[in-house]
Amino acid sequence: MPNPTRPEDAEMRRGQRLLFVSILFGAMLCFPLLGVFDQEKRVGGLPLLYVYILAMWILIVAVTGYLVRKTD
Q: Which UniProt key words apply to this protein (predicted)?
């Protein structure tokens, strides 16, 4: 017989997921990776570094919104 999950357990898992996401995106926005994208190349007329930072920001907002609204 499966154990029903308690609301406290769901909140703890959500907090752990959000912590993981923040650490992951913190690593993706640190200098070594930013240095990889700091080139003279342009995407749609914008520098590659700006496109990378904007894409990461959009992804952070989307993933965080998904995790906060997701019901277990």
A: Membrane, Transmembrane, Transmembrane helix
Closest CA to 64 of 8, 30, 23: 23
> pTM for the full model?
0.82
Count of structural domains, the chain: 1
User: Per 3-state DSSP, what percentage of the chain is helix, strand, and coil (rounded to 5)?
Assistant: 70, 5, 25
Q: Which residue has the tokens 């070594």?
A: 32
The DSSP bridge partners found for residue 43 are: 46
Q: Residue 18: which pLDDT band, with cuts at 50, 70 and 90?
A: very high
Q: What is the DSSP letter of 47?
A: E
